[in-house]
Write a structure and sequence with these properties.
Chain lengths: ~325, ~325, ~325
């Protein structure tokens, strides 16, 4: 594809070399001479690269054919899709798929081998249901969802438009709720609520979103959830939040809009997290926290405080020795 | 359902409004006027709710139709099942399921689309095997087990009665065992043992229970395990233990009866935990610990000690400043 | 099997009792009189065992029929395989499996019920594809791979020889990459790269290995990965590394050869770990670290330092009291 065409399609400004024929995208290191890569800074521009063309930010003069973008990474993301266009699944229902006669399928739906669709399920137009995926009774999928192979949607889950579930993800499984039965054992607290997943949510492989005990678990519009994440019953995740791998959100937690969690954050039950709060990897959240701040550590505190205590923690042996020295000096003084 | 009928069936005492027609259960907040909810304390009774009827504990005078229960949450759990009765799977074997001719099926068994049952497997009366579940060679299931879609039981696993496995759970996979081969590599230590899961165990979505290397991994009666939990080879989990999400139990660990673990607890290999020990979320257990106590933190210690050190940890920067001040004062004194 | 035959086949020296008829292998405790067990030390030899025969290390005189091996555990591992030989899957394609007409199958391949093989996939000689496993378009499997039930290989993944994937493992799912779109939301950074898994790799149940965004994620020869592990996009794991359960490796991390990670280690993105580095369970790696050392704690430091600070951490309340005492003494001195 000609560089000029890419520039136009990604909304960038052609800096030079409009006729340059881009064959592929590549990371800076190891790029071949017919590839397009990108830099975000003057420093990156100096890194060795064989890339034949670059996407650069404003204020940087490239030494080869280039496109200038306000946000080079965003432009590059769009260029990837141009040069490596995804192959859309061919509509059609594989003969080995099992579609209950009371299920409703939209137009242009694609259903893979051995997938199963339960009674009363509604599959929106253009949805792709991967091989071996299980869509339970009464599940509703908005248009253009992609359900990768071997996902499981328990009965009653509701998904909006363009929701993507990666392989092995489980939606609307029972929450973990038991009540002491008064004679030393427990009885199951019935998990009869639902899960609602709004438009443009993407959920990673082997992630689990539990159904509510009575009401609903809700993953709001545009939320992105990574692999192996646990979302417990009755949780609400606010619009546009990003939740990295292995994070666990306990029951009845509410996250605000645009919350960002690094890998393996843990959140205790029934807390509320304000809009835009950011959590460093491995943070442990043990109480409600206000939005607009960056948190770290377990128990999680604001990052400046967290860093201070982490630094001091790493110096604990030295601090202990200094304390001992102080004690000895004091004894000497008292002895005098 | 009339409130009087609910009271009778859940073993509670009708306080008033026996003719009140309950249409559904609801959480306190957001309950509609034809719903039943519950309170556990005087404080909760003061929370705004539109619930038409309540379950209350002894000693609390309700202001509307109500049932009095020794344990309101338990009573409410039972009321949920009355008002939202689960729909039992219809017995029958889906034509797309693959049942080996050497497998034995009990009466009233239900097997979903594309599930497969291996040779020599025995499926107890009333079991439900979900779509796409894989029951390996020689697996034995007691009566009334529910195996949700896409679970995998490796050959030789044995389940008791009424065991529930949630979607994507894997039982009796190989433990993680390798031996240095003397020339810089490793050889697999064969994982030839079994897994035994006793009656009334429930295991969460995408949880994994490894088979023993030689002997058995055993999950005893009434244990409840949450999503994404790892149970390594040769582990024993004592009766009635509750293990929350993302917890990991390393090889050859023995947990006593009634052990409770919050989310994402980690237990190192070969340790023994006494009956009734309770572990706060994110605890890290690095040695054997006696029962009947509450533990927290990593390394896990009794909760009072843990809280003390966590509090001091959060004050480390202040402590360091105070130490520096003490040092300066001492220098001043010495200079005099 | 006669003890003499076992000795010969595992490459050990028969110490006595060559005609002893070994019926099974067993752990030391609970072994029956016709079983073979093993000890690694004089101390273990004194533990009560009913084992009829033992594998012992050099320098230990057994009191019963025995085999002497340089490495008794390795010898025992080999004896297990002799006495409990794995039953190889019978070659053949189950009629319910779905093989795309453009897929190529090697000789002696076994494909289980309801598995599916996509167009252009190449399955090497002797591979076993378990029930319900999903092999995507263009996936290449070397010879003798074992893909357990319900695994998912996204399109384009490449596996070497003898790779084992345990049930529910997901290979080449999308990495977690999003770019701010400049108007408060995010756009997906396309995940168009691949995953290469080299020879003799074993990957645990419900583990996830993401595809690269552009280049490749690579798991090198002989790596062993436990259950529920997360390997993010563009990661490289060096030859022979061992990664225990619930560990998470963030994007673009490079591990050297022979790296060992205990359970639930976390590694932040873009760091490099040197050959032979060892990490204790629950370590948190926040920067590049050199090889050949043992690390522990979060943030991970060399084990001696880690242990020192962990010990002092556990004494924090005492240290705080001692600091307060010092302060009071100083005040007394100043008052004088």
């Amino acid at each position: 594809m000609r560089l000029a065409e890419i520039a136009e399609k990604i909304g960038g400004e052609l800096v030079g070399g409009g006729d340059f024929d881009v064959r592929d995208v590549a990371e800076l290191a190891g790029a071949s001479s017919d590839s397009l890569s990108y830099v975000e800074s003057e420093r990156q521009l100096k890194e060795p690269t064989g890339a034949g063309a670059l996407i650069v930010p404003p204020g940087i003069e490239p030494d080869r054919p280039a496109i200038r973008c306000e946000n080079p990474k965003l432009g590059f993301a769009r260029a990837i899709t141009l040069l490596r266009p995804p192959t859309p699944p061919v509509p059609g229902i594989h003969p080995s798929a099992v579609i209950d006669e009371k299920a409703k399928l939209g137009e242009g739906v694609s259903i893979g081998p051995s997938a199963s669709i339960g009674p009363g399920a509604e599959i929106g137009n253009g949805c792709h249901i991967g091989a071996g995926a299980r869509v339970g009774e009464g599940v509703i999928l908005g248009p253009d969802c992609i359900i990768h192979p071997n996902c499981v949607l328990y009965p009653g889950a509701t998904l909006g438009a363009r929701v993507v579930l990666h392989a092995g993800a489980v939606i609307a499984s029972d929450g973990f709720g038991y009540v002491p039965d008064g004679s030393g054992g427990v009885e199951k607290f019935p998990q009869t609520g639902t899960v609602v997943i709004e438009d443009d949510v993407e959920i990673g492989a082997c992630a689990v979103v539990d159904r509510a005990s009575i009401g609903e678990t809700r993953i709001k519009r545009g939320v992105k959830i990574d692999n192996l994440v646990q979302i417990a019953h009755n949780v609400t995740i606010g619009e546009g939040s990003l939740i990295a791998s292995q994070t666990g959100i306990s029951g009845s937690v509410t996250l605000g809009r645009g919350v960002i969690m690094g890998g393996r954050v843990g959140v205790t039950d029934h807390v509320e997290i304000g809009d835009g709060a950011i959590f460093g990897a491995m943070s442990g959240v043990s109480k409600s926290l206000e939005g607009g701040k960056i948190y770290l550590d377990a128990p999680a505190v604001e990052i400046a405080d967290a860093r201070r205590r982490i630094v001091i923690y790493s110096r604990l042996p030295e601090i202990f020795r200094r304390l001992q020295k102080v004690e000895r000096k004091l004894e000497d003084i008292e002895t005098c």
